[in-house]
Amino acid sequence: MKIWTSRYGFKGLNKPELVKVGIAQGVPRWPLKYELMANLLCLAPTTAMREMVREEYLPLYIERLEALGVGRVLAILEALAGDKNIALLCWEDLNKQGLWCHRRLFADWWFTQTGEKVEELERIVMQGGLL
Fold first, then answer.
1. Are strands 18-22 and 119-120 parallel, antiparallel or unpaired?
2. CA 110, CA 130: separation in Å to the nearest integer?
3. Which long-range contacts (CB under 8 A, 24 or more apart) does 63-71 make?
4. DSSP per-residue codes, 45-77
5. Which of 65, 69, 71, 83 has its CA 20 to 30 A from that of 108?
6. pLDDT of 3-61, one tens digit each?
7. Pairwise CA distance, residues 125 & 52, whole Å
8. Contact at 8 Å (CB) between 94 and 101?
9. Which of 27, 75, 53, 77 is CA-nearest to residue 61?
10. Contacts with 117 (C-beta within 8 Å, 6 or more apart), sequence order
11. In what helix (H) or strand (E) does residue 87 lie, and over which residues does it extend?
């Protein structure tokens, strides 16, 4: 299983070999062109965290991930993805300058824990990469 991150609005998500999973407090109310398998609130920031600046937010989000542990996160993702790849989704369009997002904090934490890169799917596709 390869883990990617992306945003709900990315048009390249309609691939059957990719399991789409939200990691946000909510899911889109507009009709999606793909099936959203689940929304993992355990990987989402809390409502209070969303009001914080990055310096306050970062240690709390990492603490949240540490409390779950890499083994438990892996078990949850594998249970959802099976033998497919998985895309962890939230709202932010990281193509817009100056934006940051917890999905990339998750990616950094995952790399630190496992040595496995979690890339932003939209950037790879825009560069001509394939899944």
1. unpaired
2. 22
3. 65/106, 65/109, 68/42, 68/43, 70/110, 70/113, 70/114
4. PPTTGGGS-HHHHHHHHHHHHHHH-HHHHHHHH
5. 83
6. 999 999 998 898 888 999 999 998 999 999 999 999 999 999 998 888 888 788 899 99
7. 31
8. yes
9. 53
10. 107, 111
11. strand 85-90
